[in-house]
Records
---
Amino acid sequence: MNKYCLECDDYKEVELRNVERTLSVKGEDITLSIDEYFCKDCGDSIYDEEQDSKNLLLFYDEYRRRNNLLSAAQIKAIRQKYGLTQVQFARLLGFGDKTITRYERGAIQDEAHDNLIRQMESEENFRKIFNLRKGNLAEIDQRRIETRLSQSKTKIIIKPIKYGSKNEYTSLNQLVSKDYIFNKFEIAYCG
């Protein structure tokens, strides 16, 4: 493969090598082993936009990991859990329209945004925000999301467990004691 070498001022054959590099991300030095192109003639490092972008994302992912921030993939998974577009999710959270797009493409979110996005993992929290901010969405999108949420409500099924030859039954009012629940009933959560 040939790429332009600044040192040789010509297109030269290059090779991909694994090297250790340090990059400062938001004031934090991060050292990683990354792949980088080098000129086979002079040995100089070669700029390659695609490879350099991949490497930058590796540094950003490591920064997120060290600082307990959601990864781009985790943010996308939370958004997709509710069938939202990037713009819809951003509007529900009160962010700019392109914010979620940037985060899913690798930009590092601040802690406040991370905390709010993280809270959306819980359907209960999502419902609260949706009910507060659904006016930021088109009516057709509101109805689609409301339908999806109504279909995903968690159901709790309480089945009596047979003891010997007789079944034990109780009213919901008697299900206050944890001991009673676990000793007398099997509880199944269906989502």
---
Amino acid sequence: MAAAKLIELRVNGRTHALAAPDGALLLDVLREMLGLTGTKQGCDGGECGACTVLIDGQPRLACLTLAAGVQGRAIETIESLAPQGRLSALQRAFHEKLGAQCGFCTPGMVMAAEALLRDKPQPSEADVREALAGNLCRCTGYVKIIEAVLGAAAETAGACAGAGKSGCACAAVAETSKEGA
């Protein structure tokens, strides 16, 4: 059995002192020690993106990240996006635009999209595709997922300043919807 090491992690705004085994992966610490099961265990090899979390605002794969290596950094899981149980605009868009099928990949998709929207509040469809390139979904053709991200961007921007012009999120959502029809 591996020796335990005392680590301190800041997860979803709260600091946790834990005795974690040497070499413990962030995924295991989140799920097994902190009970944050929204982060999914998919491939265990960094191939699927189901375990995507944000570390200092950037997407990282928890299945490849040593817990001890992220001490003192801000770790955000899918649970952080719904304070008091209220869905974020992005989570709501995934629900309303049917971006989640079986739901297994959804937490990783949402976290990768969250990082994108923080960095680029009005992304193009190409930006969304690039941001989600490391996240696999076996249920969809990604059209509804892309619509959800673009829809959340449009919602958080309020009324569309682009009035449907090329490059505005509203136009991208409309175009994606036409393609998927």
---
Amino acid sequence: MLPLERNEQSIRHDLANRGENQEQKIPPPSNAATINDSHYLPSAMTSPQCIENQQWIAATATQVERCFTEQDLMHQWLNPALRCDPIGDWRVTVGSQMRFLLQVPLLQPSLISTVVERGPGLVVWEFEGFFQGRDRWECIPDETGTTLLNRFEFSVPNPLIQFGFKTFAQKWTQRDMAAQLKRLKQVAERL
């Protein structure tokens, strides 16, 4: 068996053994594109939202995971208006941090993002800044490829920024997240 196959088998085993006895920090994915459920977000947040996208990819879970954990691959599909800089060395382990910077004229708002959950084919970032919440990336392998789940649960605590987001950026964000998964798919399928 090749090392890549063992890693793939390890991912399948780990996913199969995620039982109800284990504490889950984020619920299993729903089919809803948007939900208003604050149960999994810090209680100080108001008006939580969720944007969820899935993309089937003709690649192993290991190849897909590399696309959202390796810096050079990540920058191939990430929106060019976003910059992702590590705080310290580039690592995607529990406790590691990154700064996501939105490069827009006159402003450069940023989010500090901390890895709070990590497993084979799984990364959950928790972030604070003009948004607060979590961004879950999860590989779900099958016999022919991998489904990538991206679940972005967030709240915008500042009412002025919340108004601006809902008025100008919410639909763009939803479209951009789906487009990013399509670009990630292209990168993963070339590996």
